[in-house]
Design the sequence.
C-alpha cells in the first residue's frame, strides 16, 4: 500500500485522491482473503459510516462556500482591512493579527472548512499589504495546522488520541510543548521571512520570491 500511495503520487501517475481510491481497492481483497480480518458485514458497516462522514463533510463544505460568497458580496475583506488599518498600518502588526484570527479559526473548525472560509476574506487583505499568494498559502497552512491540535476543539488531537489509545490529558502537555517550542517558531519564520516559503516554488515553477 505505501508503494501504491506514495509511488503513485510522487511519480505523477495518480493524484492523492486517485491513490486513495486505488489503495482501497487493494485493501479490500487483501483484508478479506489474505489477512482474513475483513468480512462482508464489516464492509457494509464501513461503507455506511463512510457515506455518513462524507455526506456531513460535503454539507459542511457547501455551507462554507455559501458563507464565503456572502462575505465577498458584502465586501467584508475591505471592511476588515479598514478595521485593521484603524488599529495599525504596519504590515507586520497586521500579519500578527491575521495569524491570531486564523489560529482561532483552526481551533474551532476543521482545516478544510477554515481554508474555504478564511481564504476569500483574508487573501485580498494579505495581497494589499504586499504578501504574495504563495506566501499567504504557507501562512494559512501553518496556522490552521497548529489550530487543529490546539484546544478547545483540536480535531486532530482527538483523532490521534483515538488512534493511539491515549487520553487527552496525557497528550495535552507534550502537545503544548510542541506548539510552544516547535510550531510557534515555525509560524514566526513562515510569516516574517517569506523567502523560506517562496524559494521552492521559485526554483521549481519560476515564480517570484
Sequence:
Amino acid at each position: 500500500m505505501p508503494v501504491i500511495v506514495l509511488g503513485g503520487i510522487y511519480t505523477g501517475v495518480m493524484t492523492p485522491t486517485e491513490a486513495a481510491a486505488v489503495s482501497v481497492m487493494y485493501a479490500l481483497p487483501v483484508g478479506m482473503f489474505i489477512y482474513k480480518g475483513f468480512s462482508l458485514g464489516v464492509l457494509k458497516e464501513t461503507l455506511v459510516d463512510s457515506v455518513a462522514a462524507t455526506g456531513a463533510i460535503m454539507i459542511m463544505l457547501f455551507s462554507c462556500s455559501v458563507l464565503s460568497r456572502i462575505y465577498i458580496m458584502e465586501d467584508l475583506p475591505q471592511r476588515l482591512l479598514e478595521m485593521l488599518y484603524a488599529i495599525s498600518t504596519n504590515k507586520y502588526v497586521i500579519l500578527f493579527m491575521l495569524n491570531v484570527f486564523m489560529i482561532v479559526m483552526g481551533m474551532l473548525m476543521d482545516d478544510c472548512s477554515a481554508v474555504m472560509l478564511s481564504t476569500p476574506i483574508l487573501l485580498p487583505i494579505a495581497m494589499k499589504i504586499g504578501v504574495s499568494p504563495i506566501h499567504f498559502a504557507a501562512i494559512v497552512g501553518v496556522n490552521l495546522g497548529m489550530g487543529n491540535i490546539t484546544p478547545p476543539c483540536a480535531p486532530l488531537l482527538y483523532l490521534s488520541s483515538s488512534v493511539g489509545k491515549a487520553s487527552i490529558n496525557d497528550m495535552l502537555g507534550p502537545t503544548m510543548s510542541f506548539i510552544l517550542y516547535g510550531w510557534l517558531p515555525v509560524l514566526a519564520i513562515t510569516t516574517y521571512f517569506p523567502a523560506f516559503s517562496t524559494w521552492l516554488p521559485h526554483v521549481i515553477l519560476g515564480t517570484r520570491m
Remarks:
- The chain has a mean pLDDT of 84.
- The two ends are 37 Å apart (CA to CA).
